[in-house]
Amino acid sequence: MLERLVGRSEALEKAAAGEDLSYEDGLSLMRHDNLHALAAVADASRRRLVGEDVTFAASYYMNYTNICAASCQMCAFYRKAGDADAYALTPSQIESRAAQAEGMGATEVHIVGGFHPKLKLDYYEDMMRAVKRGHPGLNVKAFTPAEVHFLSRLLSTPVREILSRLRDAGLDSMPGGGAEIFHPDVRGLIVRGKCSGQEWLDVAEQAHRLGIMGNATMLYGHVEGPEHVVDHLVRIRALQRKTGGFLTFIPLKFSPPNTELEREGLVRHECSSAYDLRIVALSRLMLAGALDNVSVYWVAYGKKLAQVALAGGGSDLVGTAFSEEIYRAAGKPAESSLEELARMVREAGRVPVQRSTHFAALKRL
């Protein structure tokens, strides 16, 4: 069956055989006219590499501030100091939310925020210590490489020193936000005041060298072309082969509402579901053998499409997303329970498994 679907595509034949795919192969697959074949090969790759389990974490999302020195065209979340709804939480308030997270059964807190121009490093260290002191069992997954790069510039402090101090204060792992699209031809159109793609990768590498593992992401569905998507995946794969420090890859679907890209008419609608499925399948095939956890972020896709993506290369649903605010600001309010995610997985014919941040199986549901 799979052999018939592969047809005359050399790139798809290589993918089906489990061979490394080149940049040119990636472009070929992005343009392949048979999405069903692409998804089927990606699903076979997923089955071979990680089996039938679909994993997810009990995760509580927390944003310590929405005040941001950047003003990215793709972001609906940021505010400027003085805006009526601008805020910055105190370490005590963050600890209170961590207590709420633990009470809800979360095993990790996902903490990110804007590029606040006045907060110093001791604020972030106090935040880590407050959470760890009261809730030592929670994995603190905090501060994207983009945030760490901003702090390094703001405080004129080397990235390694910032990461070391945050780790010593209680940082366990890092989320993958801020990667967006690495290629400068696109990055300059969707971000303003944020690190370059290479700077993001450099911070991630230094974190990995210090034993701080984290996620990798890619924001797609805006103004990128096939070549930019493939370039992004190739660069993630190269760093993963160098350090082994990424836990999973999460393709993030762009949501236009309330963003500058929508207001200026550069992106009028969300990308198609067919494009979503192509991105998930391509991610699986390009990263195969290097980064074998490919996550489907159901908050952005919706639960029904997320189930379909699990049949096209996806093997993880990220998590419950308690209190998620970033996509909420772009018109997609959502959170779920472990039970609901498990039901989604069973309906898709797979095996639901609650995992830790570092992908250790905690419980079959």
How many DSSP helices?
17
Radius of gyration: 20 Å
Strand content: 5-15%
Secondary structure: helix percent: 40-55%
Q: What pattern of helices and strands is seen along the backbone? A: HHHHEEHEHEHHEHHEHEHHHHEHHEE
Write down the overall mean pLDDT. Answer: 92
Which CATH architecture of the domain at 20-57 and 143-359 would you pick? Alpha-Beta Barrel
Question: Would you give the CATH topology of the domain at 20-57 and 143-359?
Answer: TIM Barrel
Structural class: alpha/beta
Describe this structure in words.
- Helix 10 (197-209) runs parallel beside helix 11 (226-243).
- It is built from 17 helices and ten strands.
- It has a domain at 20-57 and 143-359: Aldolase class I (TIM Barrel), CATH 3.20.20.70.
- Strand 6 (213-220), helix 11 and strand 7 (246-253) form a beta-alpha-beta unit.
- The chain has a four-stranded mixed beta sheet, covered by helices on one side. The protein has a three-stranded parallel beta sheet with strand order 2-3-4, with helices on one face. A three-stranded parallel beta sheet has the order 5-6-7.
- By secondary structure, it is α/β, with parallel strands linked by helices.
- It has helices spanning 2-6, 10-16, 23-30, 35-50, 91-103, 121-134, 145-155, 159-169, 184-190, 197-209, 226-243, 260-263, 273-287, 298-301, 303-309, 326-329, 338-347; strands at residues 53-57, 59-63, 108-112, 139-142, 173-174, 213-220, 246-253, 316-319, 351-355, 361-364.
